[in-house]
Each structure stands twice: as C-alpha cells, then as structure tokens.
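User: I'm putting together notes for a lab meeting next week and I want to include a structural view of one of the chains we've been expressing. I don't have a solved structure, so I'd like a prediction I can at least talk through. The sequence is below, exactly as it appears in our construct file.
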Amino acid sequence: MRNLSSAIFPFTIATLLAGLTYALQWYVQAPDVLPAGAAPHKPDAIVSQAEIVKIGGNGNIKYRLTSPRILHFRDDDSTQMEKPLLQHFKSNGPTTTINSEMAHINGAATIVQFNGNVLIHRPAFQETPVIQGNMTSLTVYPDDGKAETASFVTLQRGQSWLKGTGMSLDNNRQLFVLHQNSRGHYPPALHP
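Assistant: Thanks for the context. Below is the predicted structure for the 192-residue chain, given as structure tokens.
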C-alpha cells in the first residue's frame, strides 16, 4: 500500500504541472477578445521614406504623396502617414502642395484626411501671386483635384487675405470658396 501511495504522489504532481503548463500556454497564445467579425486595428506594415505616385492617363505624374513613415492597417486597408506632403501637378499650371502633421488615407486611396497644422501652398504663376492657406484639418480628393474642410481657414494671396470657417477648394479651376463668417482684405491694385 505504501508503494502505491508513493507512486501516486509524483504522478499527481506531474499531471498538475502538465495541466498548469497547458493552461499557461493557452492563456499566453490566446487571441485578443474582439467583437464577432472584428479584426484588430493594428499595423501590418510600417514603411520608412514612403512615396505614393499616381500617374495620369497621359503618362505624367498626377500627384505624389510622400512621408517619412507610414503605417498600413489590414482590417480596413487604410494608411496613416506622419508628416505627409502631397504635391498635385498640373500640366498647364503650378504645383500645389499640402502638408500637415498626420494624414489618414482610406482603403481605396481616394480620400486623404490631413490633420494638424495643415498648410496649402501654390507658387506664383504668370499674373497670379503666391497663394497660401492654413487650417487644422483638410479632406482631399486627390484624383478629383478637390478638397474641403469645416475648420477655420486663413488664406493669403499676395497682399490679400481671407479668413472664415469652412472651405471648398477646386484646384482644377483655381477656386477657393469660404463657407461662413468670412472676412478679408483686398488692397486696390497699384498702377503707376
């Protein structure tokens, strides 16, 4: 009887340890608890010094989007960019640039949401002076050459300036429309 009890004790300890080891392994390797059908919103790729280029039908570059660091998320196929710079090229006009602290690109790459100190710059061209804009956020539709914001906007064109809340921008028509609470200063042209 004594031999049986001395054999059962080590067997019981070994079985208990095996069970604890299995439970610990299951706990460590268990997936995060998510709602049914939801995938985790974690980056599946991180790229340094990234450049996204869209080529138009004529073979010329339509726009270029660069960033020192981008993160891609598999669950919604979106991309997050740090310090993005968008250059929108026109064959018959100046290149308009937009940069900010962060940007979010939807999965289809048809919408770019710029956030944090958004700056728009279009250099002088022919008779038109430099145009610059500043706002906290801007939604850009790069394929269409259009953008919009609901935030407060400051625009400067040469010595003229406009301020207001909300804006629509059409880069193809070189048109800015402020939506509300607009005010500005437009000095008369100086003629000799």
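A couple of points you could mention at the meeting. The mean pLDDT is 81. The first strand starts at residue 43 and ends at 55.

User: Perfect, that's what I needed.
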